[in-house]
Design brief:
270 residues, alpha/beta, serine acetyltransferase, domain 1, UDP N-Acetylglucosamine Acyltransferase, domain 1, five-stranded parallel sheet, globular
Length: 270
């Protein structure tokens, strides 16, 4: 009864390469995070040799996953996996700064351990940092799978191509969108519902800077929408909640939405 449907499916030019499942790729990244932050995992490694052995396993697994995305160019995939592992210390240092920023910037955080184990912002940033490195190494598909996994888990959508400096703090986080060509400086703090987006989504703008630049020491409160590739938020500025911005802001600015709010006692007659 479904013959016509199955014929249409078979006629499509489906990619038949044996690419790992999205779940397998996400689990690999989680293993990388658990290697860097044993407190994130259920158990610690017994010694340095055990950690080195795990790193070797992760490198081989990564090489295999990459090979499936670049037409089984095994030599190239091994080189990329090696380069990724060479940069692992840099990822670790970046994530340490993010952990410190979240802990110091949130009065509710009791410890960096709590940040690592419980904060969705840290989880999303971990996946972004790993995905961004793979993207910079020109790995196709896998970086996007990783950030979309984090998006599905946390509601935080960070494109792997975005450039985000150290000490990045996401507080709460649900609904945050950070577009492909965003540039974010050091010590930036961002609350839930923030959008760093494009003024236009026309396909011909692919490859053009479409998303904002946020300079150092900026705080962006919940619900703010900042759009456009020429929009620059100057350093040491504060962007208030529900602000809509499509133009640049000078350094040391405070930008806020000023709604009219009326109060009335519910005991009053209408």
């Amino acid at each position: 009864m479904h013959d016509d449907l199955f014929k249409r499916i078979m006629a499509r030019p489906v990619n038949t390469k044996l690419i790992s499942s999205n779940q397998t790729i996400a689990e690999w990244a989680l293993d990388v995070i658990n290697l860097l932050f044993p407190e994130h995992a259920r158990s610690r490694f017994g010694d340095v040799a055990g950690m080195a052995q795990e790193a070797c396993r992760l490198k081989l697994q990564l090489a295999g996953m990459i090979a499936a995305t670049i037409d089984n160019e095994e030599r190239r995939s091994r080189e990329i996996a090696e380069a990724f592992m060479d940069h692992l210390a840099h990822i670790y240092e970046l994530l340490l700064t993010d952990t410190k920023a979240i802990y110091k910037g949130d009065p509710a955080a009791q410890s960096e351990f709590e940040v690592i184990r419980t904060y969705p912002g840290f989880y999303a940033i971990c996946f972004y940092r790993i995905a961004h490195l793979l993207h910079s190494l020109e790995v196709p598909l896998i970086p996007r799978i990783l950030t979309e996994h984090a998006h599905s888990k946390t509601g935080i959508d960070i494109h792997p191509a975005a450039e985000i400096a150290e000490y990045f703090h996401i507080d709460h986080g649900t609904g945050i969108v950070i577009g492909e060509t965003c540039t974010i400086g050091r010590h930036v703090k961002m609350y839930q519902g923030v959008t760093l987006g494009a003024l236009s989504v026309r396909k011909e703008l692919s490859g053009v800077k479409r998303h904002p630049t946020v300079e150092d020491n900026v705080v962006i409160y919940s619900g703010a929408t900042i759009l456009g590739g020429e929009t620059v938020i100057g350093h040491d500025s504060v962007i208030g909640g529900n602000v809509w911005l499509t133009q640049s802001v000078e350094p040391f600015s405070a930008v806020y939405h000023n709604p009219v709010i009326n109060f009335r006692s519910i005991t009053e007659k209408k």
